[in-house]
């Protein structure tokens, strides 16, 4: 009975977060087909290992962690760098305002080391709270706060910007 209920919760979680999960996978591999494969593999892993989920309330972060780990496994296996396709450039810069700034942000974000990029993507693009980011990345909350601070510092330096309120919050 519990297993069936947990499976239903998982299916609901996958359905409700499908765009976010795809975007998360894409942020790692930067290729549509590879991102779709990662999402598919992640769903398979989640379905086959549903019994390992101890707290059904943590379903979303558990599934995000599977997606992140599957993405990292893919990168380790393939050791390749893909360029961004034209369709994704359009998505990242949809309007005419601040097109260059958006492209600079995207480029600078891609240049960040993976541990910093992951924190930024999960926190700001996936809108997860600090504790959820820590759970997804299987790290201590203070480690995530430090990485977020350092990542924002690196981005600020790269973009030659003034300190934002978000950065000073962790000082």
Describe what you observe in this structure.
This protein is mainly alpha-helical and 171 residues long. The chain has two domains: 1-82, RNA polymerase sigma factor, region 2, helix turn helix motif (Rna Polymerase Sigma Factor, Chain: A); 95-171, Winged helix-like DNA-binding domain superfamily/Winged helix DNA-binding domain (Arc Repressor Mutant, subunit A). The protein is built from ten helices and no strands. Helix 2 crosses helix 3 (32-48), helix 3 packs across helix 4 (59-78) and helix 7 crosses helix 9. It is globular and about 50 Å long. Mean pLDDT is 81; it is low at 81-86 and 92-101.
> Secondary-structure element order, as H and E?
HHHHHHHHHH
Output the structural class.
mainly alpha
* CATH architecture label of the largest domain: Orthogonal Bundle
- Rg over C-alpha atoms, rounded to the nearest angstrom: 17 Å
Enumerate how many helices there are, as a single number.
10
Which CATH C-level class of the largest domain is it? Mainly Alpha
Give me the count of strands. 0
CATH evolutionary superfamily of the largest domain = RNA polymerase sigma factor, region 2, helix turn helix motif
How widely separated are the two ends? 48 Å
* CATH fold type of the largest domain: Rna Polymerase Sigma Factor, Chain: A
- List low-confidence stretches: 81-86, 92-101
Number of self-contained structural domains: 2
Chain-averaged pLDDT: 81
Helix-residue proportion: over 70%
Shape: globular
How many strands, what sense, and barrel or not for the largest sheet?
Answer: none
As a percent range, the share of strand residues is under 5%
Pfam families: Sigma70_r2, Sigma70_r4_2
Protein name: RNA polymerase sigma factor SigV
Family: Belongs to the sigma-70 factor family. ECF subfamily.
InterPro entries: RNA_pol_sigma-70-like (IPR039425), RNA_pol_sigma-70_dom (IPR014284), RNA_pol_sigma70_r2 (IPR007627), RNA_pol_sigma70_r4_t2 (IPR013249), RNA_pol_sigma_r2 (IPR013325), RNA_pol_sigma_r3/r4-like (IPR013324), WH-like_DNA-bd_sf (IPR036388)
């Amino acid at each position: 009975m519990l297993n069936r209920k947990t499976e239903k919760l998982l299916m609901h979680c996958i359905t409700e977060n499908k765009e976010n999960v795809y975007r998360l996978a894409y942020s790692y591999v930067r290729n549509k087909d590879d991102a779709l494969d990662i999402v598919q593999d992640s769903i398979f892993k989640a379905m086959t290992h549903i019994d390992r989920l101890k707290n059904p309330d943590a379903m979303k972060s558990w599934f995000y962690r599977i997606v992140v780990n599957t993405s990292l496994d893919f990168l380790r296996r393939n050791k390749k760098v893909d360029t961004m396709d034209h369709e994704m450039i359009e998505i990242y810069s949809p309007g005419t305002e601040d097109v260059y700034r958006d492209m600079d942000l995207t480029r600078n974000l891609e240049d960040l080391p993976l541990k910093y990029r992951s924190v930024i993507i999960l926190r700001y693009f996936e809108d997860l709270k600090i504790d959820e980011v820590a759970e997804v990345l299987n790290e201590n909350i203070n480690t995530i706060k430090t990485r977020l601070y350092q990542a924002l510092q690196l981005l600020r330096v790269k973009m030659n910007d003034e300190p934002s309120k978000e950065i000073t919050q962790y000082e």
